[in-house]
Amino acid sequence: MPGIIERNNVNVRGAGQKAMMFAHGFGCDQNMWRFVAPAFETDFRIVLFDHVGAGGSNLAAYDKGKYSTLAGYADDVVEIGRELGLRGAVFVGHSVSSMIGVLAAEKAPGMFGKLVLVGPSARYIDDEDYVGGFSAKQIEELLEFLEANHMGWSAQMAPMIMGNPERPELGQELTNSFCRTDPEIAKAFARVTFTSDNREDLPRVSVPTLVLQCSEDIIAPKQVGDFVNRTIPDSRMIVLRATGHCPNLSAPEEVISAMRSFV
Question: Does the predicted model carry a pTM greater than 0.85?
Answer without folding.
Answer: yes
